[in-house]
Amino acid sequence: VGSRPLLYQLSKAGKLCVPAMNVNDSVTKQKFDNLYCCRESILDGLKRTTDVMFGGKQVVICGYGEVGKGCCAALKALGAIVYVTEIDPICALQACMDGFRVVKLNEVIRQVDIIITCTGNKNVVTRDQLDRMKNGSIVCNMGHSNTEIDVASLRTPELTWERVRSQVDHVIWPDGKRVILLAEGRLLNLSCSTVPTFVLSITATTQALALIELYNAPEGRYKQDVYLLPKKMDEYVASLHLTTFDAHLTELTDDQAKYLGLNKNGPFKPNYYRY
Amino acid sequence: VGSRPLLYQLSKAGKLCVPAMNVNDSVTKQKFDNLYCCRESILDGLKRTTDVMFGGKQVVICGYGEVGKGCCAALKALGAIVYVTEIDPICALQACMDGFRVVKLNEVIRQVDIIITCTGNKNVVTRDQLDRMKNGSIVCNMGHSNTEIDVASLRTPELTWERVRSQVDHVIWPDGKRVILLAEGRLLNLSCSTVPTFVLSITATTQALALIELYNAPEGRYKQDVYLLPKKMDEYVASLHLTTFDAHLTELTDDQAKYLGLNKNGPFKPNYYRY
Amino acid sequence: VGSRPLLYQLSKAGKLCVPAMNVNDSVTKQKFDNLYCCRESILDGLKRTTDVMFGGKQVVICGYGEVGKGCCAALKALGAIVYVTEIDPICALQACMDGFRVVKLNEVIRQVDIIITCTGNKNVVTRDQLDRMKNGSIVCNMGHSNTEIDVASLRTPELTWERVRSQVDHVIWPDGKRVILLAEGRLLNLSCSTVPTFVLSITATTQALALIELYNAPEGRYKQDVYLLPKKMDEYVASLHLTTFDAHLTELTDDQAKYLGLNKNGPFKPNYYRY
Amino acid sequence: VGSRPLLYQLSKAGKLCVPAMNVNDSVTKQKFDNLYCCRESILDGLKRTTDVMFGGKQVVICGYGEVGKGCCAALKALGAIVYVTEIDPICALQACMDGFRVVKLNEVIRQVDIIITCTGNKNVVTRDQLDRMKNGSIVCNMGHSNTEIDVASLRTPELTWERVRSQVDHVIWPDGKRVILLAEGRLLNLSCSTVPTFVLSITATTQALALIELYNAPEGRYKQDVYLLPKKMDEYVASLHLTTFDAHLTELTDDQAKYLGLNKNGPFKPNYYRY
C-alpha cells in the first residue's frame, strides 16, 4: 500500500542497477491482496481482537484506495454506518457514489466507535484526535507500517496502557476513558488476521512469473528501470486460479477477435485499463 | 465502451493529423458514465420498457467491464440471481470474487429470464442461442452499437415481430414462444433511460478541459498522437463535483506531503493507478 | 399500510355483520406487495418522474415498516446515504442494525436531497419542514393516502406551483427555491410506477383463496370477526408461485416430520412466526 | 431455534404447572440473537476455525429462518455464491426474492465448498451426502443441538478423523478426500465464535423483564399457559438499547396518535405484526 515506492525513487535517481518488476501494482496483486483480502481481514481482525458487533456501529475509514474500499464494503454490508476521509478528489467522489459520507476526521471524531486507517500516510490520527475519541472506541491500522496512527504520542506519563490480551491494549486517560488500540498501530491484517492461501497463491505465482520473465527475457528487453508486469502474465495468473471457482471462460471466435483487433489468447485490455 | 478506438488506429497508422485527448478513458468518465451511471440505467431501462420485477429473476450479463460491473451490482442488490460471461480471465476472477458464477452463455441460456450484453463485441448472442431462450425472456444491449445481439438473424420469415410499445418488440417463434427484444438491440441506456445531469456535467467538464488544455498547451507538449487526460485535470473535474455531495476533502500537511513525496495539490496517484 | 384497519374497528364496536379475512396482513401480501414490491417501485417511481441519480444522494425515509425497509434497502444498494425516522423503538433498532442512522426529521431536513414518507400517519412532513428543505430537493409519499405530506399547507398564495410534467410539480418559494413534489403527495408507487404482474398474482390468489375459504367454511368456523388467513393457505399461495423461479422445495421425511412435530404438508410455523 | 418448544408441549398436555413467558419468540430476541447476531458469527466462526476466504466460494445454507437469513446475507455480501434449501414455501419464496436459488441439497452437494445447517431439524445432511462432498469442503451447524448433520454416521471404521486444531476435525475418506467438520456438528456460533455483549444485554434484559412481569402480575392475569412477552415490554427493551447507537426516536403528536388510534407511548403495533 505504501506510497513512496523505493524502486521508483532509485530508478529516478539513476541508482537502480538491475531491471525490476513492480509486482505490487499488477492487477491481480492489487485487487486480491488489497481489495478482496482486506474486505475479509478487517472483519476477521476486529472480531478476533475485540468481539465487537458491527451492526449499528459508526466507523470512519481514512483512505478510499483498494484497502479502504474493501473495508468500507465489508462493514457497510454488515450494518455499520461508515464515513470516509480522503485527500484525493477522485477517490472521494467514488466514496460518494458508493454511499459513504466524505468528511474530515475532526467532524466525526467524537461520535465514531471505530477508526480504521488505510492511507499509506503518517500521523493520520493524531494525539489531539485520540484525546477526543469516545470511551470504548477502537482504533486500528490497515494501511502500512505503524505510522498512520501517532502511537508514539500515546506513550506519555498521564496515559496508562493496559494489555488486555495479545495485540489489544487499552489506553486509559486520566478521566478513565479507554481507547482500544489494536496491534500497537501496526497492520491489523497481518497481526490479527490471516492471509488466505488463495491470495498467497496469487501473489506467489505473480512473483515467480515476474522472476522467470526477468531471467528469460532476451538481452535488451528490460533496462535498469521499474516495469509493470506484462499484462499477459497478469492474465495468465488469473486464468490459473479460475478453476478454483469452477469458472468457465468464453473464447473469442476468429471473427470476434478480428472485430476487436485482439489476439484470441490475449492480452485483452490496453495497458491503461483500470479493471 | 467500444473496443477498437479509432484514434489509436489512426495514430498507429501515422494518419492522425492533430493531437487528440482520449477523454473516454479518463477516470471520471469511465467510472461515472459507465460504472455508476449504468448501475442505475439498467434498472431504469428495464422498468420503463417491461415493468419486469427483478427479485428472483435469473439474469446473465455478458461482459464484466465497467458497464457489466454496474449492471451486476444493481441487479444483485435487487434480488436477481446473476451469471457472468467473460473472455478476460482477470475480469472473470473479479466476477468470482464479487459473488457471480462465471459461465458460458450456453450453460444458462435455457434458464435465464434476462440477457444483457455489455461487451463491445459483436454476435455475443447468436440466433442459435435466441432460439433456445425461454418464453417471455428479455434480451437487451448495454454495450455499444447494435451488433452485440445478432438482431439481423431474427429478421427471417418464420419469426413474427410485434411492436408492443415504443422500443419494445416481441419476437414470436412458430411455436408461440416470445422473446422480448428491447430497442431493437441498440443501447438500452441511451434509448430507454436517461443520463443524469450530474453525469453529463462530469463528461462535459472533462471534454471542455481537454479542449482547453490542447488549445493552451505550449508548442511541442502534444504531438500527433493520442493522450490520456492529465491526471491533475481528472482530479480537478472530480473536485468540482464534490460540493454536490457536501463532501469535505482532507488536506495534506506539509509534513505528510513530504513523507508521501506528493505535491499538496496533487496529482495524488501514479499514472498506472486503477482506482 | 394503513394503521387504523376499519374492519378491526367495526369488529371491536360489534358492528361487523359478516366474517372477514384480513388478507392485507397475510405473509405473502405483506412481504411481496409491501417489502419486495416497494423495494423496486421506489426506484422506478423516482426515475420516471425526476431522472434523479441515486448515487451519493442523501435521503431520509420516514417509517421503517415493510415499505420503509424496502425503500431503504434499494436506495442504500444504489449508493444513497439513507437516514430513517421512527416512532417505534423496535423498528428503530432494526434500522440501526441494518446500517441506517435513526434521526428526527428536523436534524437532517436542511441537508437531504429526497424525503420519502412510509408511515401510514398524517402530517409527517409539515409546512415548517418543507420551508427548510434545500432547493431542488424531492418529496414523495410511499405510505398511504395523501396525508403524510401536508400538501394542503403548500397551497398558499406566496408559493407558486409549476406543473413540469405529469405527476411532477415544482413548488416555488418567494426566494426562488424549488421543492419537487411527486404525485401531489399521493402514493408514488401507484401513481408513478407499476405493480409487477407477479405481485398482482400473489395478491389476487390470496384474495380469491380467502373468499373461497369463507364461502366453503362449515357453519360456525368463522364468527362476525376479523381473521388472519389460515397459515396453510398462505403457504399454498407461496408454493403456487415457486415454479416461477424454478425453486425446488425440500420435503420432510416421516422421521423428520415426527421429530419436528409437524405435518409433512404444513403448516410449518406457529402462528406468531414473523418470517 | 428449536422447533419443538417443550413448554408448548407441556401446556398442550395440561402439564404446565406455572405460567411461562416465551421470551425466545419476543421480537428483540428473535431478530437480535438470531438474525443480526448470526449474520456476524457465521463469518467469525468460519474464519477462526478455517481461515477460509469467502469470495467466490459456493455455499449452501439449509433453512431460511432468521438464522439462515443472517448467514445468507453475510456470505452474499462478502462475495460467496449462496444456495438455499427450504421445506416451507413462504421462506423459500423469500429466499428467491432475496436473490438465492432454492435447491434440494442433492442438486448442489457435489459443487459446494461449504454447507451450513440452520434448520432446527435432524439429519439434514446425511452420510450419503457427506460421501459426495468435494475434497476440502467444510460442513458446520448454526441451527440447534448436534443432530442437523448426521455426525454419528461418520464414526465408522473406514473413515479416519484427524483433529487439526480445537473444534476442527478432518474426516478422511479411504480415497484421501477430506471433509472439514466444525465443532463436531455442534453449534458453530456458540463453540467457535462469541456472543457480543450488546446481544447478551438485549437477551438478559428481556428475560429479567419477563420474570418481573410474571412476579408482579395481578392474580389471574396469567394462567398455567405459555405467553409471548407483552409488546410494550419488547418495545421497552428496544428503547433501552437505542442510546448505544445515538438513535433519536420521533414522538407522535397528540393529533397523530389520535389519527392512528395509538397511545403515544405504545404499543405501536398489533400483536400479529411481523417486523
Jot down its keywords.
homotetramer; 275 residues; alpha/beta; two-stranded parallel ribbon; 10 helices; NAD (chains A, B, C, D); Adenosylhomocysteinase like 1 (chains A, B, C, D); S-Ado-L-homoCys_hydrolase_CS (chains A, B, C, D); Adenosylhomocysteinase-like (chains A, B, C, D)
Give the class of chain A from helix and strand content and strand pairing: alpha/beta
Greatest interface and its participating residue counts? A-B, 64 and 64 residues
**CA-CA gap between termini of chain A:** 18 Å
Low-confidence stretches of chain A: none
Describe the structure.
Four copies of one chain form a homotetramer. The model of chain A has no long low-confidence stretch (mean pLDDT 94). In chain A, the strands form two sheets. An eight-stranded mixed β-sheet of chain A has the order 4-3-2-5-6-9-8-7, covered by helices on one side. The first copy, chain A, has a two-stranded parallel sheet with strand order 1-10. In chain A, helix 2 runs antiparallel to helix 8. In chain A, strand 2, helix 3 and strand 3 form a beta-alpha-beta unit. Chain A is α/β, with parallel strands linked by helices and 275 residues long. Chain A contains ten helices and ten strands. At the A-B interface, helix 2, helix 4, strand 4, helix 9 and helix 10 of A face helix 2, helix 4, strand 4, helix 9 and helix 10 of B.
